[in-house]
Amino acid sequence: MAMEDCCDEAHEAQELIRQGTYDLPRMTKVLDSERVFLLVDEGTVRRYKADLTDEIEPQINELLSRAEKGLQVLLKRESMLQAKVEASQSRPSSRATATTAGMSKIDVRRLQMLARQRQKLEEEAAQLQAEVDAMELERAARKK
Asked: What InterPro entries does the record tag this protein with (predicted)?
């Protein structure tokens, strides 16, 4: 039951991060564009680029704040899950082995499948966390 709760929490965390960062590739491509037309003088291009920056910056800040809020929620969930893990580890382990010994093959397979799924979700959460960290570093670098 605790394993399912952990998997559910990890899945919800993954969905929360995806919602906060789903538009990042498009926004990055828009911001990386340097020149639009070679037939327009450089001053016009700079003026339009500044206008575009003024128009897009609030949206970027909104996405970053959503990502930061999502990160805070994930940190809270992580601490709650860590507390659950510590609480379950402090219980006698003989109870866990007795439960597994009494389980049917289907239940054991399901438990193994859930463990693999949990590991995949943890790896995916770590990748998403790395992306969020990279975004924060990039944002900090742009502010300087």
From this structure: DASH_Spc19
Tell me the three state secondary structure of residue 132: helix
Q: What's the half-sphere exposure (Cβ side, CA atoms, 13 Å) at 10?
A: 21
Exposure on the CB side of residue 104, measured as CA atoms within 13 A: 2
Q: How far apart are CA 125 and CA 15, in angstroms?
A: 10
pLDDT mean values, one per 10 residues, the chain (144 residues): 85 86 80 65 88 92 92 90 83 55 82 90 92 89 79
The pLDDT, as a whole number, for residue 30 is 76
Name residue, tokens 């559910």. Answer: 8
DSSP assignments along 36-82, one per residue: S-TTS-HHHHHHHHHHHHHHHHHHHHHHHHHHHHHHHHHHHHHHHHH
Tokens describing residue 97: 């082995």
Could you tell me if 132 and 21 are in contact, meaning their C-beta atoms sit under 8 angstroms apart? yes
> Given phi > 0 = left and psi -120 to 50 = alpha, else beta, which region is 33?
beta
Its pTM surpasses 0.70: no
- What's 37's DSSP letter? -
